[in-house]
Structure formats: structure tokens, C-alpha cells
Amino acid sequence: MIHLVKLLDKDKKYLGRDGTYIPLVFSKTKGSLIIDAYGNKIIDFLSGWNVGNVGWGVAEIKNEIKRFNGPDYVDPYSLYKPWVDLAEILAKITPSNLVKSFRATGGTEAVEIAIQAAILHTKRSKFIAIKDSYHGHSIATMSLMKRPGFNFLDSHQIEIPLDTKAGREVEKILSKGDIAAYISEPIVLNLGVEIPTQEYFNLVQNACKKYGTVFIIDEVATGFGRTGKLFASEYYDLKPDIMCLGKGLTGGYGALGSTIMTEELAKSMEVDFSFYSTFGWHPLNTIATIANLKYLLKYKNSILKNVLAMSKYFAYRLSKMKFKYNPEIRIKGLAIAVRFKKEDYAQEIVNKTLENHLLISTLTPYVFTLFPSLTIDKDTAKKGLDILEYCL
């Protein structure tokens, strides 16, 4: 039996953290459940923050991984067929103008590569991002988001809501002709499922093309079915120059990210030592990712159908719940945010739900989020929502 206090003491002694931790000791995962070290079954409405989209412990995926008998490592400058296989899959499922994938270890590195490509291609170093959004934890991505103490990139910050007015602001900034790239999620999950208008993206995409600015869409969290489409950018018919991928790309069965871009952008990276990732697309992770994608694409229609059905169910149940403070509920597929005007109420709910074996998450003291598995069944969804309602 694991002693929680002793484990926590050792964790604090040996592991670096940002100060945040969830008092949950993982032992196993299966479907939409986490089994802790004490045998408790916790309903997972977080999915590793949009990682385990197809659910945990899928036998079809795990069996494919077990059959792997390839090399322990492949030198980044060498040839490896599974790399080509994975890149071909990504080229076929992303917008048609995106053809070349660059290997990354995760979402942060995928965005780093996109930033690098934009600078090399445009010979500019200024960016546009959404205020308080999230694109990773590297020096460049933290600078992109203007986090305190990180001011190494010149980044204009666009405030929500992302509507016609915001689109006009982006247009005005781009008209100066000195912006390397615009970057955002198609639906901004980190801001509580902020859903831009179609006009906003029409203005932004057209202005990027007009003024020679690289149009980057970050689908690390929104991609692979989370919002009810394979990619959230499909809702707006976006044709980005670069798309960043991670999280649901592997389903948690491996650690891997990808930056896929146009042929024109890829050529800008063809200079000595412009790109190198020691563990990008490690052989075992590559096989795991291919297995996850094959499963997702094989059952794509039924999975997305389930997302839309469960989305309606979550919306209905949440609308009937008697929160202490009237919230704003935002839902796109199974990306769900509940926003309050009362500070810390969201965290109170999150703490209570975990005590009652339901895992959800806060974004800010005002917002909690639900990111259940895309394959969650109604019975499990009901049990989880019953716990949430009980904890209000």
C-alpha cells in the first residue's frame, strides 16, 4: 500500500513542479476510468487535458504497440519507413495544402518549430497571439504569450472576444508588413472554450495572405476529434500555412508532436542545422502514434457521432444543474467550460468532485473544464455528472 504523505514528501524532494499537483496516485487507467493506488475508480473528465481522446487502455492499440520489434533508436538524419508512414497519414488528414511534417517530441516543440519556420521564411521576428492563451512552456512560447519575465519575442496580444472587431485589429497590425506569424487555436480551450466567429477568421486568414504573414493554427489540444470534427479548424474552413499537433495525436500511448506545413514553408527550413530533434518521433512512439491514428480513423464516424450525442447530453445536464452562481456554459463537441463571476467557486467544485471520485480541472479561479474521452458511454457520463451535481 502506498502511503500518500510519504509519497508526497518524496515527490516534493525529488521532482520539480510549478507548485500545482493533484492529490491522486495513479495506478491504472481503463476507458474513462483512473484506478488509483488504493483501488478507487475515478471517473476521468480530463483525459490528461485532451490527450486520451479515444480512451485509455484500448486493446487494439496496445496490441499493435506490443508487436513492435523495431530499432531502439534511429539517427535523425537517417531514413525510417514508419516516419514516412506517419507523415503520409498526417498529410492525408490535414488541410490539403499541408504536406511536410517536422518531427517533435510534443506540442511545445511543435510550436517552437512553427515559430522558427515563420522567422526563417519571412525574415521577420514579430508575432500576433491571443492574450492569455497557451502554446507551450519553452522560452519562445512563453514569450509569445507574454508571460511575466519572458520578453524575448515581440508579440502583439489580441483580446477576446474573437469577433469582427478583433479581426479588424489583427488586420491593422498586419498591414504594417512586419509580422512573421499569427498563431492561435481555432477554438481557444485555455480561455474557457472561446469560440471565434467565422468573420474573425475570414479577416485574419485573408490579411495573413495579403501581407505575407505566416498563418499558424495550433491544434495540439483541439485536434483529433475533441470538438466534434477531426480538426476544429474544419468549422471555419481554415487553410493554415502551418498546423501544430500533439496530445490526442498519440492518445497518450506515446510521446510525440508534429509540425506540418506547406511545401513553401518547409523549404525555408532547408538550411544547415535549422532543425534537429534527438528524440522527435522515437521509433516506439512513432508506432504507438500510428496505431492510435489507425484506430481513430477506422472508427472515426462512430466516434464523432458519439461526441455530438454526448455533447448534447452534457449540455442538457449542465443546463439543469443548480449552481450557486449562474455560470456561462460553453460547449463545442466534448470541449466544455463552465465560467463563473465568483472567484474560487470553480476550484471549490473541483476539490469536492475529486473527493467523490470525479476528476475535472480548473483553468482559472473562475472556470472549470470538462474534457471527457470521446468514446465515453452514457452510463459513465451520467455517473460523472451525477457526482458533479452532488458536489454543487
Structural features, described:
- The chain has 392 residues and is of the alpha/beta class.
- It folds into 2 domains: 142 residues, Aspartate Aminotransferase, domain 1, CATH 3.90.1150.10; 235 residues, 3-Layer(aba) Sandwich (Aspartate Aminotransferase, domain 2).
- The chain has 13 helices and 15 strands.
- The protein has a 7-stranded mixed sheet, with helices on both faces.
- α3 runs antiparallel to α10 and α7 packs parallel to α8.
- The protein is globular and about 55 Å long.
- The relative contact order is 0.16.
Quick overview of this protein structure:
38% of the residues lie in helices and 17% in strands. The protein is α/β, with parallel strands linked by helices and 392 residues long. Helix 11 (300-320) packs parallel to helix 13.
